[in-house]
Amino acid sequence: MPNGEQGGGEAERVRQVLERRAHCLWEKDAHALVALYAAGIVTFDLAPPLATAGPAVRETAGWERWFRTWEGPIGLEITRLEVDIEGALAFCHSLNRMRGTKTDGAAVDLWFRATVALRRFAGDWLIVHEHNSVPFLMDGSGLAALELQP
To answer: What's the CATH number for 2-133?
Structure first.
Protein backbone atom coordinates (compact mmCIF):
# COMPACT_ATOMS: atom_id res chain seq x y z
CA MET A 1 0.00 0.00 0.00
CA PRO A 2 1.19 3.60 -0.51
CA ASN A 3 3.09 5.53 2.19
CA GLY A 4 4.20 2.37 3.93
CA GLU A 5 0.71 1.51 5.13
CA GLN A 6 -0.22 -2.13 5.23
CA GLY A 7 -2.96 -4.06 6.90
CA GLY A 8 -6.01 -2.03 5.78
CA GLY A 9 -8.42 -1.91 8.72
CA GLU A 10 -5.69 -2.89 11.15
CA ALA A 11 -3.66 0.18 10.13
CA GLU A 12 -6.67 2.34 10.94
CA ARG A 13 -6.98 0.66 14.35
CA VAL A 14 -3.31 1.40 15.05
CA ARG A 15 -3.83 5.03 14.01
CA GLN A 16 -6.77 5.21 16.43
CA VAL A 17 -4.54 4.06 19.31
CA LEU A 18 -2.08 6.86 18.54
CA GLU A 19 -4.90 9.39 18.27
CA ARG A 20 -6.29 8.19 21.64
CA ARG A 21 -2.82 8.71 23.12
CA ALA A 22 -2.85 12.31 21.82
CA HIS A 23 -6.35 12.81 23.24
CA CYS A 24 -5.20 11.48 26.64
CA LEU A 25 -2.47 14.13 26.69
CA TRP A 26 -4.98 16.84 25.73
CA GLU A 27 -7.29 15.74 28.54
CA LYS A 28 -4.40 14.97 30.92
CA ASP A 29 -5.96 11.56 31.58
CA ALA A 30 -3.17 9.43 33.03
CA HIS A 31 -5.36 6.36 33.59
CA ALA A 32 -6.58 6.24 29.98
CA LEU A 33 -3.04 6.91 28.75
CA VAL A 34 -1.34 4.06 30.58
CA ALA A 35 -4.11 1.69 29.44
CA LEU A 36 -2.65 2.06 25.93
CA TYR A 37 0.72 0.66 27.05
CA ALA A 38 1.60 -3.04 27.26
CA ALA A 39 2.96 -4.33 30.57
CA GLY A 40 6.45 -4.81 29.12
CA ILE A 41 6.73 -1.42 27.42
CA VAL A 42 10.11 0.27 27.00
CA THR A 43 10.33 3.99 26.23
CA PHE A 44 13.14 6.25 25.09
CA ASP A 45 11.57 9.62 25.75
CA LEU A 46 12.53 13.28 25.48
CA ALA A 47 13.08 13.64 29.23
CA PRO A 48 15.63 11.62 31.22
CA PRO A 49 16.40 8.85 31.92
CA LEU A 50 17.72 7.22 28.75
CA ALA A 51 15.16 4.42 29.04
CA THR A 52 12.10 3.64 31.12
CA ALA A 53 10.41 0.26 31.25
CA GLY A 54 7.28 -1.54 32.39
CA PRO A 55 5.76 -0.39 35.66
CA ALA A 56 7.56 2.97 35.67
CA VAL A 57 5.95 3.91 32.32
CA ARG A 58 2.54 2.63 33.39
CA GLU A 59 2.57 4.43 36.76
CA THR A 60 -0.14 7.09 36.66
CA ALA A 61 1.47 9.17 39.44
CA GLY A 62 4.44 10.05 37.23
CA TRP A 63 2.18 11.12 34.38
CA GLU A 64 0.01 13.14 36.74
CA ARG A 65 3.09 14.97 38.11
CA TRP A 66 4.11 15.86 34.57
CA PHE A 67 0.57 16.95 33.68
CA ARG A 68 0.60 19.35 36.64
CA THR A 69 3.53 21.20 35.03
CA TRP A 70 1.20 22.29 32.22
CA GLU A 71 -1.42 25.04 32.29
CA GLY A 72 -4.39 23.81 30.29
CA PRO A 73 -4.33 21.05 27.69
CA ILE A 74 -1.27 19.55 26.03
CA GLY A 75 -1.60 19.49 22.27
CA LEU A 76 -0.01 16.66 20.32
CA GLU A 77 -0.31 16.82 16.55
CA ILE A 78 0.81 13.67 14.74
CA THR A 79 1.98 14.37 11.19
CA ARG A 80 3.47 12.30 8.38
CA LEU A 81 2.40 9.13 10.17
CA GLU A 82 3.33 5.91 8.44
CA VAL A 83 2.12 2.53 9.67
CA ASP A 84 3.56 -0.84 8.67
CA ILE A 85 1.98 -4.03 9.95
CA GLU A 86 3.26 -7.57 9.83
CA GLY A 87 1.07 -10.06 11.67
CA ALA A 88 0.65 -8.96 15.28
CA LEU A 89 3.32 -6.23 15.11
CA ALA A 90 2.93 -2.66 13.91
CA PHE A 91 5.74 -0.20 13.34
CA CYS A 92 4.95 3.52 13.09
CA HIS A 93 6.93 6.69 12.65
CA SER A 94 5.87 10.32 12.50
CA LEU A 95 6.86 13.90 13.06
CA ASN A 96 4.95 15.24 16.04
CA ARG A 97 4.26 18.72 17.33
CA MET A 98 3.64 19.33 21.03
CA ARG A 99 2.11 22.64 22.06
CA GLY A 100 0.88 24.17 25.25
CA THR A 101 1.79 26.43 28.12
CA LYS A 102 3.80 25.40 31.16
CA THR A 103 2.68 26.55 34.61
CA ASP A 104 5.56 29.05 34.67
CA GLY A 105 4.05 30.72 31.59
CA ALA A 106 6.56 29.33 29.10
CA ALA A 107 5.00 28.55 25.72
CA VAL A 108 5.95 25.17 24.28
CA ASP A 109 5.92 24.59 20.52
CA LEU A 110 8.19 21.61 19.87
CA TRP A 111 8.57 19.38 16.84
CA PHE A 112 10.08 15.96 17.49
CA ARG A 113 10.52 12.57 15.88
CA ALA A 114 8.51 9.60 17.08
CA THR A 115 8.79 5.88 16.50
CA VAL A 116 6.17 3.61 18.05
CA ALA A 117 5.85 -0.17 17.99
CA LEU A 118 2.58 -1.86 18.86
CA ARG A 119 1.63 -5.51 19.35
CA ARG A 120 -1.82 -7.00 19.02
CA PHE A 121 -2.86 -8.79 22.21
CA ALA A 122 -6.17 -10.67 22.07
CA GLY A 123 -7.31 -8.37 19.25
CA ASP A 124 -6.29 -5.08 20.91
CA TRP A 125 -3.28 -3.03 19.81
CA LEU A 126 -1.05 -1.90 22.70
CA ILE A 127 2.11 0.18 22.58
CA VAL A 128 5.19 -1.93 23.40
CA HIS A 129 7.89 0.59 22.48
CA GLU A 130 8.02 4.34 22.07
CA HIS A 131 11.01 6.45 21.05
CA ASN A 132 10.75 10.25 20.93
CA SER A 133 13.74 12.41 20.07
CA VAL A 134 15.04 15.71 18.75
CA PRO A 135 18.27 15.99 16.78
CA PHE A 136 21.24 17.75 18.34
CA LEU A 137 23.62 20.20 16.73
CA MET A 138 26.79 18.53 15.46
CA ASP A 139 28.87 21.69 16.01
CA GLY A 140 30.36 20.51 19.29
CA SER A 141 27.88 22.40 21.44
CA GLY A 142 25.77 19.34 22.18
CA LEU A 143 22.64 21.53 22.12
CA ALA A 144 19.29 20.16 21.01
CA ALA A 145 18.06 21.49 17.65
CA LEU A 146 14.69 22.68 18.96
CA GLU A 147 13.95 25.18 16.19
CA LEU A 148 13.54 22.55 13.45
CA GLN A 149 10.19 22.23 11.68
CA PRO A 150 9.11 19.98 8.83
So the answer is: 3.10.450.50
